[in-house]
Amino acid sequence: MTLQANTRLTAAETALVEAYNTQISDLPGDADVLSARDRLLDDLKTGGLPTRRIESWHYTDLKTLVKTWPALEGADTTKVLPPMVAGSSVLAVLQGKADGARADGFTVSHYRDSLSDGSAAARLAAASDDDAIGRINGSFVRDGFVLEIPADAELEAPVEIQSIHAGGQAHTRFPVKIGAGAKVVVIERHIATSGDEAALVSSVSDITVGEGAEVTWVVVQQQGAADTFLGQVRVDLGADAKLKLFNVNAGGKLVRQELRIDANGEGSELTLRGVNLIGGEQHVDVTLVLGHNVPNTSSTDVFRNVVFDRGRGVFQGMIKVAIDAQKTDAKMSCNTLLLSDEADFSAKPELEIFADDVVCGHGATVADIDDNHLYYLKARGIPENIARAMLVNAFVAEVVEELEDEPLVEALEAIISAWLAKHA
Amino acid sequence: MVAVQETIDQVKQIDIDQYKYGFETQIEVDKAPKGLSEDIIRFISAKKQEPDWMLEWRLDAYRRWLTMEEPTWARVEYPKIDFNDIYYYAAPKNVTGPVSIDDVDPELLKTYEKLGIPLREQEILAGVQTSKIAIDAVFDSVSVVTTFKEELKKAGVIFMSISEAIREHPELVKKYLGSVVPPTDNYYATLNCAVFTDGSFVFVPKGVRCPMELSTYFRINEKNTGQFERTLIICEEGAYVSYLEGCTAPQRDENQLHAAVVELVALDDAEIKYSTVQNWYPGDMEGKGGIYNFVTKRGDCRGKNSKISWTQVETGSAITWKYPSCILRGDGSRGEFYSIAVSNGHQQIDSGTKMIHLGKNTSSRIISKGISAGKSNNTYRGQVSAHRKAANARNFTQCDSLLIGDTCGAHTVPYIEAKNSTCQFEHEATTSKISEDQLFYCLQRGIPEEAAIALIVNGFVKEVIQELPMEFAVEAQKLIGISLEGSVG
User: Do residue A244 and residue A382 come from a single domain?
Assistant: First the structure.
């Protein structure tokens, strides 16, 4: 699974290398950070962008899908948006550069400072051999926020990280440490304000959840219709920690969202939910690697995908159970509504199990709307198009409701309804 | 849940140190020089008295093979194979093809007797067996004997070794050979095209229901040889055949390569049932020796409403790399795959199936059970795909695995690819096969818990076992009782 040596670079790859060479003089970082960046770029240069021959990129051949590497600057200026949930502490990153921040009850600093003083160097390395997103982000990242939620803090208001761009490139990183016993809701929002300019955005969230902490983390992706988004969420889950991780994809042209989660503490619980709305000519790939590394951890993952038009959806979900991870309880399901004959969906739910006393399972389905359901509604006088919309809505809403946080659920449902109204 | 004691005991019974077929037959052999070259291919072709077109076909494949790379994507590990350190042709002396049973070397007959394979027609008729099986016995690189040929001929069924078929029915072979698995398909299939030595050929003409089960028994005996068998089965419109395959090999410290290609063609309304009990030598407890089983098996449901069904019970081989597949080309065609794969010792299995839905209203079903013990790794890898035009394609997949001990691994890698909105795909890899409801139902009726579990589990595994023809049930019997309680996805 190593990136294969490839001497012939595509136009986009050449542009990537050139972009690095021109940007390196003003990319923040001390000597350690700069040599880490050089190593990451070197890997990209020798290996190229991943192709379908690399198993974890089988359905998203980045080498052929990434056609250009846009200029750094965006087309418009950007400004902070009102938060999804009123009263949230907003941490805004405009065009890849962290803005001022309002922090109530936690500490926050600019990631560019960690790059400059070298404290970010150690975590810049790629997470695995096939970690192209980590490499791209690590080479080009300029800013982001470093968050620290103190132990036992209970934040009343959600924290909203807003990453806004209007074309160009933006590469952000968010190292977050959540102290033991802390309770917090974080919304990570990626939004484009200019529609047509093809942007390239990469983002890595590096989250450590302390012992017994309770965290809700919501990733909402609303990129522009021409944008490429390469996102990654890395989670280190401590003992008895509870994490609810939600991922809503409602935008972008080429999207790869990676979720790399390690249950490293006994008694930890993960609730992972995803909604992927795919239409037009979109290619949306959600790839999950979930490691159960210690005994007595549990996880449930539910993904709902809706694919219209000529959309192409991908779900790869790997559950790994280490040899010591007895009594693991892991369940994964991926359900897809395929609503057009020109659309397609590929699913690869994988299990890799080395412990013998565990309960693991996965299920995957792909189908159109159930005729019986449709008939039920039509028989009650509801026109077909409205009946279909109702059923699609219900299919994804079911997952969102599990957040059990009313203002947040309403905000997400509004985003989903708006997307469906536009595409369905 | 952990595996119950009963299961552990049953798996132990078929553990690799219990391998019963590890004896070696002392017989004089005729071998081609070691190594692989165009000359060796010419040698094989000449030994088989093949026509020129066949030799050219082989040489083309060989030249292409030289440009190919060995696949590395499967979850198996083994030292690099030196393809020049293998004998590509080995046959018992003076045997170049099947002869009448009376002319077969008594040493060979003894071997098959020991393996429990009936080669004498009269014995079968006089015996307790109620149904007849026609057998093609392949020993290293040649087919030794084919039984019931005459009787089958009366029904219009052609059953003979592929070498004979190339000589006697070149038009059929030319038409179908390589039409399902093209010579360019993959590294091992291409190698097979170049050097295949024997295997079976079956042709069932229009409207004929083959009057008996057909079977091929493969035996690797000679040291350092590779076995490259080629099987081709064709069922014309409305025809039916059930075919069984069995394999064993002696116990040796060196690894031996077995790279077979099996092609099935089903025309309109035809049905082919292909069953395998694979019991190649798996290596010893330290992982030394054993067969590398790198096999390409594919069925083409070429006609409307045709059906191909694969059933396999896999207990042998050091490494298994095989994916019996169905191409569902004909409208309304159906593919099935039933598998039980048990790995022990240091065995590595990476096996599964592919169901490629191309035609309209096609359906497929996959039931796979993997059981790993010892230090083995057992991977299910399967693909289900629906083409743009495959309206109403339907698939149901269920794969379960069970781990015994914590030094082995079980893996599931399904690929589900849907390109048509009317398709309905369901993939399931669930855990507790025994639902609380079922157990409660039994307990309530006074059945003790252990007995209830056994009852439910047996009913469950029978899904695969019942697909095996009666004749193979005996070999599979040991596996029937294996409980899947505590299975993991």
Answer: no
Query: Amino acid identity, residue A15?
Result: A
Query: Within this chain, do residues A22 and A157 fall inside the same structural domain, yes or no?
Result: yes
Q: Does A338 touch chain B (CB under 8 A)?
A: yes
Number of H helices, E strands in chain A: 8, 19
Q: Tens digit of pLDDT for each residue in B191-237?
A: 999 999 888 899 999 999 988 888 888 777 777 778 888 999 999 99
A 287-326 → B contacts, CB under 8 A? 321, 323, 326
Domain presence at residue A412: yes
Instruction: Write out pLDDT tens, residues A51-84.
Output: 988 889 999 999 999 988 888 887 777 788 999 9
DSSP strands (E only) in A312-386: 312-321, 329-338, 344-353, 359-367
B240-248 and B230-235 strand pairing = unpaired
Q: Which of residues 197-236 of B touch A (CB under 8 A)?
A: none
Q: Is A303 within the bounds of a domain?
A: no
> Does the distance separating the beta carbons of A339 and B422 come in below 8 Å?
no
Q: Do B418 and A362 touch (CB under 8 A)?
A: no
Co-location of A78 and A196 in the same domain: yes
Cα–Cα distance, B381 to B367 (Å, whole number): 12
Least Cα separation, residue B406 to chain A (angstroms): 5
Mutate one of B412, B428, B432 to test the A interface: name it (highest A CB count within 10 A): B412
How far, rounded to the nearest angstrom, does the alpha carbon of residue B4 sit from its chain's CA centroid?
Answer: 29
- pLDDT tens figures, A352-391: 888 878 888 888 999 888 889 999 999 999 998 889 889 9
Interface predicted TM-score (ipTM) of this complex, two decimals = 0.83
Residue A119 CB-half CA count within 13 A: 9
Domain assignment of residue A419, given as a range: 370-424
pLDDT digits (tens, 9 = 90+) for B332-385: 999 999 888 888 888 899 999 999 999 999 999 998 888 787 888 889 999 999
CA B450/CA B436 separation, integer angstroms: 14
Is A352 inside any structural domain?
A: no
DSSP SS3 for B154: helix
Instruction: Quick: pLDDT tens for A256-276.
Output: 999 999 999 999 999 999 999
Q: Given the structure tokens 């042998």, which residue do they identify?
A: B316
Q: Of A67-71, B6-10, B21-25, B430-434, which gets the smallest average pLDDT?
A: B430-434
The CA-CA-CA angle for residues A185, A191, A196, to 5°, reads 170
| DSSP strands (E only) in A85-199 | 89-94, 97-101, 107-110, 143-149, 159-165, 169-178, 183-192
Residue ending a domain, choose from A265, A293, A308: A265
Total structural domains in chain A?
A: 2
- Please judge whether B428 and A346 are an interchain contact, meaning their C-beta atoms are less than 8 angstroms apart: no
CA distance B348 to chain A (A): 14
Q: Are residues A398 and A257 in the same domain?
A: no
Who among B407, B411, B415 is closest to A353 (CB)?
B411
Q: Which of A357, A362, A365 sits opposite B2 (nearest CB)?
A: A357
Asked if B8 has any chain A CB less than 8 Å from its own CB, the reply is no
For A135, residues 6+ apart whose C-beta sits below 8 A from its C-beta are A40, A41, A43, A44, A126
A254 and A378 part of one domain:
no
A265, A300, A328: which is the final residue of a domain? A265
Residues A195, A51, single domain; the answer is yes
Phi (first) and psi of residue B9, to 5 degrees: -65, -40
* Assigned domain for A323 exists: no
Beta-carbon separation of A363 and B427 below 8 A? yes
- A252 and A383 together in one domain: no
Residue B406 has its nearest CB partner, among A343, A344, A355, at A355
B287 in reach of chain A (CB within 8 A): no
**Based on the domain organization, do A35 and A174 belong to the same domain?**
yes
Chain B closest-CA separation from residue A64 CA (Å)? 20
